[in-house]
Amino acid sequence: MTIGTTVLGYPRIGPDRELKRALERYWAGKIDSTALLAAGRELRQRTWLELRDAGLDSIPSNTFSHYDHVLDTAELFGVLPTRPGLSPLDTYFAAARGVQDAPAWEMTKWFDTNYHYLVPELGPDTEFSLAGTKPLDEYREARTLGIETRPVLVGPVTFLLLSKGTGGFRPLDLLDTLLPRYADLLAKLHDAGVEWVQLDEPAFAADRTEAELNALIRAYHWLGKATARPKLLVAGYFGGLGRGLGVLARAPIDALAVDLVTDESFVDSVAAEPALRDKEVVAGVVDGRNVWRTDPRRALSRAATLFGVAKSVGVTTSCSLLHVPYDVSREDLDPRLKDRLAFARQKVDEVVLLGRALRGESVDLEAVTDRRTASSASVLPEEVSRPPYARRAAAQQAALRLPPLPTTTIGSFPQTAEVRRARAAHRAGTLDDAAYEAAMRAEVARVVRLQEDLGLDVLVHGEPERNDMVQYFAEHLAGFATTAHGWVQSYGSRCVRPPILHGDVARPAPMTVSWARYAQSLTGKPVKGMLTGPVTMLAWSFVRDDRPLAETARQVALAIRAEVHDLEAAGIRIVQVDEPALRELLPLRASEHSAYFEWAVSAFRLATSGISDATQIHTHLCYSEFGEVLAAIDALDADVTSIEAARSRLEVLTDLGGFGRGVGPGVYDIHSPRVPSAAEVAAALRAAVGAVPASRVWVNPDCGLKTRGYAEVEPALRNLVAAAREVRAELG
Ligand code: GLN
Ligand code: ZN
Questions:
Q1: Which residues are tagged catalytic?
Q2: pLDDT digits (tens, 9 = 90+) for 605-618
Q3: Which residue ranges have their beta carbon within 6 Å of ligand 1?
Q4: How far is the CA of 365 from the centre of ligand 2 (A)?
């Protein structure tokens, strides 16, 4: 059988975030592993039944994960750190979340998406073994429902390229020892009756060296030549495959899935590839990452270009549907907008329909209505640069009078059950505006008092009124819509509900000023205003695909600029504009980097300029490796940059030294429940003042504290302040 119609993957957190809830209950000791496993099984079965009933020809399995599919792969091949005394499940979670005596694995962006994977640590002594049975178990589980599935695996080359070598070691050097284990797995799957296996190699949507292309050649010649194996579908996504296309076309595999959405011109390369003659090409023509309905005529004509090029042509999504919400039919949205949207469930229907049309069946292809709204307002050129840093720094020091190594946090404080309840009740209409406002103010007051008690130098209001750093602003800006159930997994149990940016963006009224002003009225210490930057607003929203991102970014930047000015006018002397997603939107191909930096940096500067020299601009970045964007971070020209560093063991410090402005390398990993000791934080600070002049070092956690509990946060911040005082004293 051919693949025909399929999707490359499906959301797995549950339509109502059932998996998130089960995981959190399990971690809190409220349910046992049996209950957690049952919750997962239930979700997998629902997905398979749904995909079968929708009429897909080929249904994926092993797309479920209890935390992350890269972590699953590491477990499958026996390279998780062993933890004596822990069950296999808890050993898995220990690598994901850390345990008191051992930090978690590093977590980073999955290509240019807002999903984060755990980075396996491999060294010259790593020995792979086929330690797990997950793909086999899930295949069998689906079979008991009478559903034949296609197990999906991270491909061997991408797995190694995403891993981190300890001590300068190159994980790719392990390819020859990893391939036999993949072959063992394929043989087992074959014995169990599996017809097709999908191997994902998205790493080839980015620029790759000769050595890396050679690894791809070796891997698939080797795996393809096995006699007892299922048919192999290799999937490349998040862009065109570049030279990987020729390699895979010549490899002894059976089918290739290509992304024909991200880079529209890639279809020409595929059509010109003679070596695809003996393969099925599965055309990824339904956008797996955005929420707009597919234009069926354009999609069909793209897929039909491949007739005659390939042995047969299938239809699929451009990538896994992991990156979109479940079902738009549950949303209560303006019908004119809703009509133009497709979430995972609707995209499956689109694939099925396109597949039938491609086979020549007559189907009713409803034209997609034009989604252009009013043309974008032309914006006047505005001032985008501030006076030299030295001048600003002097004015800021005179205004703020901060001690050396000033301590602060990244913005949010733990969102307690009461805070969440109040927000939910307000949304449901059972708590009126005045009562809600009073509850949030009480929380702000509590958080300000706590920070004063802890002895922090720059305070925050704690963000209790924000469900999410992007959603909150989207709800206050024109041009955005927000959903009720549109959850997408960000990492592990953490989900986000990306807003939908569908029209021109504008700020009808101030969004944060009253909260910041209130917090500042309670303390003599400076309170930082807290905003989300234009790049992150775009990165964590579904964006229009009918306008250049640069233009939309400028609209968002102007709205934020107005907010910065209003905060300043309200007496706020420090404003932080978070850009945690700066790295995430970086195009995978180097040839597109400079155009991206150009618009991203100028949007940030547009948002943060035109203010007094004495007003201090902070920015914050997290979740990624920053090497490739350091020059852009520097170009943001923020007075202080706080950056995630604890989990990547402060490796970023060596690069930050060159910035010439304030830097706050995170000294407390807030993605893990463990509390760092004062000695540990002091050691990190000593490393920081060794790499960066002490006068420019700030002391802060890695990221916002909202997902943590006060039981961890209070002692951790106490240790952080104590460590800052200790190292301050050493500086003399
Ligand atoms: N100010 C935000 C917070 O503290 C920043 C979050 C982030 O960087 N992801 O929650
Ligand atoms: Zn952060």
A1: 671
A2: 999 999 999 999 99
A3: 410-412, 463, 469, 530, 578, 580, 620, 622, 703-704, 706
A4: 44
